[in-house]
Amino acid sequence: MSESFQPFERLALIGIGLIGSSLAINARAHSLAKHIAISTRRAETLTRAEELGLGDSFHLQAADAVKDADLVILCVPVGSVGAVTKEIAPALKSGAIVSDVGSVKGSVIAQMRPHLPEDVEFVPAHPIAGTEQSGPDAGFLELFEKRWCILTPVQGASEAATERLKTFWIACGSDVEIMTAEHHDRVLAIVSHLPHLIAYNIVGTAYDMEEVTQSEVVKYSASGFRDFTRLAASDPTMWRDVFLNNRDATLEVLARFSEDLSVLQRAIRDGKGDQLFETFTKTRAIRREIIEAGQDTPKPNFGRTKPPKKWEG
Amino acid sequence: MSESFQPFERLALIGIGLIGSSLAINARAHSLAKHIAISTRRAETLTRAEELGLGDSFHLQAADAVKDADLVILCVPVGSVGAVTKEIAPALKSGAIVSDVGSVKGSVIAQMRPHLPEDVEFVPAHPIAGTEQSGPDAGFLELFEKRWCILTPVQGASEAATERLKTFWIACGSDVEIMTAEHHDRVLAIVSHLPHLIAYNIVGTAYDMEEVTQSEVVKYSASGFRDFTRLAASDPTMWRDVFLNNRDATLEVLARFSEDLSVLQRAIRDGKGDQLFETFTKTRAIRREIIEAGQDTPKPNFGRTKPPKKWEG
């Protein structure tokens, strides 16, 4: 963390899943806030957050957590941000920065903005980081390290507020990019939403095959299939909300994907080896770029280690 | 390796890519053959195999390598096995076990069988193991460890030959399953061939987007996309041949995949959240099964480590 970072007086985290808990751990480790107030609706989850020592105060009512907070971050599924914003709006401190971590930005802005008082600074954010795990136990310090966080400030927010939230994310280890919500939603549709949809779909297809048993799918999954199961193990609520809230961009890239797939399908049917070879060569290059950009490991098989194991039959 | 394993007199490996070189390393480490003869068509690759000390003798002509060999394993792309078999057939020793490592079995049998003399034992094999890397430098000892190897013995091969090849693969760390070539090709179509095709396709789609730059795709790839780039970085020749040689089974599972995708697409368009939630919950279970079966790591993000890195702009 840079020496010059001025900690927030009170950080309110509404929702304490993977992202919320990772933010709490970062805020504590890097002294980003003097007080961390945590709220979540389920009493059981709140108790767990308290057991883990993730914050300084714990609240079943989101409005209690945001009181006197100068930074409020909604860490709930994107389908819930409207209701939560409505609930906390009357309790928000004048001048507070209100942000979120949602994977869709257009819909989040549309849901939150109407409820927000004029005297708060609204700066939506999206950290491009995650794992397939969820809940308060899933959080860890390094989650945001060397990962991008995209801010999509809306008209009316001050540059100072955007700048302050930017330094917060940098202190968490992120690099920060600023773009419009519309562009964000298009970019994420192709790099994140479509990949998740495809992963969910292929795992579903395999699950429902008549001629191949589920046990066979599991046994031979190291031949490719298992790579998809990680994304397809992501939080169902979060992803349901993503698709419902980034519908148009997702359907658009999905149409492109299906069109491209028809071309490959035809090439296979017609035995066009040269065309397949050309496509498969082109795609190889993009992985090299991702590794060079530090966004994935160069180790074979993602550097997976094999677990010590008992064999199934 | 079991104490009772009787080493082969001469193991001939035709082709020395990821699988061939990993087999050579295993044969040496576990004393599975008294002599390892290596052949590959490209002089440069053969020289590299020799520099790496992968074998005892090195041959540009496959026929020279198989002479006096009691185990011959073709480790070439499945599109080349017919031509290679034709070439080595006259030099094969009577009673030799002839095998391969191809990802498709029906086509491999159809290509190889007509050329093989009656007095050799033909036992096709497919180790379900690999990485996205290729070439003689990619091989390593642990590749087959705790991974399945499928044998698809054809009519005419003796049980003794199948049993002997089975012990060879067990000595390499594999567990061995026996099934028909036809069933193998159906199973692999869903667990391996479709996943690779989909991965190649989605990476191709992202590459060709007009509204999102390639640099953005690379930067934000940790949000899901990067998982697909590993499979899409696999050897283009190998995969061209797989699709051309397992055409019918691949097209069949692809049709199923597309049908399922249309259902998801419709659910998104119609805002059917419950249906999406149900699908995404079902798929989560299959990853747990894969982890319990020891076929993937339980660590978040495949246990990837972040490379020390210089940022791009």
UniProtKB/TrEMBL annotation, chains A, B:
<dbReference type="Pfam" id="PF02153">
    <property type="entry name" value="PDH_N"/>
</dbReference>
<feature type="domain" description="Prephenate/arogenate dehydrogenase">
    <location>
        <begin position="9"/>
        <end position="298"/>
    </location>
</feature>
<dbReference type="GO" id="GO:0004665">
    <property type="term" value="F:prephenate dehydrogenase (NADP+) activity"/>
</dbReference>
<dbReference type="InterPro" id="IPR050812">
    <property type="entry name" value="Preph/Arog_dehydrog"/>
</dbReference>
<dbReference type="InterPro" id="IPR008927">
    <property type="entry name" value="6-PGluconate_DH-like_C_sf"/>
</dbReference>
<dbReference type="Pfam" id="PF20463">
    <property type="entry name" value="PDH_C"/>
</dbReference>
<dbReference type="InterPro" id="IPR036291">
    <property type="entry name" value="NAD(P)-bd_dom_sf"/>
</dbReference>
<dbReference type="GO" id="GO:0070403">
    <property type="term" value="F:NAD+ binding"/>
</dbReference>
<protein>
    <recommendedName>
        <fullName>prephenate dehydrogenase</fullName>
        <ecNumber>1.3.1.12</ecNumber>
    </recommendedName>
</protein>
<dbReference type="InterPro" id="IPR046825">
    <property type="entry name" value="PDH_C"/>
</dbReference>
<keyword id="KW-0560">Oxidoreductase</keyword>
<dbReference type="GO" id="GO:0006571">
    <property type="term" value="P:tyrosine biosynthetic process"/>
</dbReference>
<dbReference type="GO" id="GO:0008977">
    <property type="term" value="F:prephenate dehydrogenase (NAD+) activity"/>
</dbReference>
<keyword id="KW-0028">Amino-acid biosynthesis</keyword>
<keyword id="KW-0827">Tyrosine biosynthesis</keyword>
<keyword id="KW-0057">Aromatic amino acid biosynthesis</keyword>
<dbReference type="InterPro" id="IPR046826">
    <property type="entry name" value="PDH_N"/>
</dbReference>
<feature type="region of interest" description="Disordered">
    <location>
        <begin position="293"/>
        <end position="313"/>
    </location>
</feature>
<comment type="pathway">
    <text>Amino-acid biosynthesis; L-tyrosine biosynthesis; (4-hydroxyphenyl)pyruvate from prephenate (NAD(+) route): step 1/1.</text>
</comment>
<dbReference type="InterPro" id="IPR003099">
    <property type="entry name" value="Prephen_DH"/>
</dbReference>
<keyword id="KW-0520">NAD</keyword>
<comment type="similarity">
    <text>Belongs to the prephenate/arogenate dehydrogenase family.</text>
</comment>
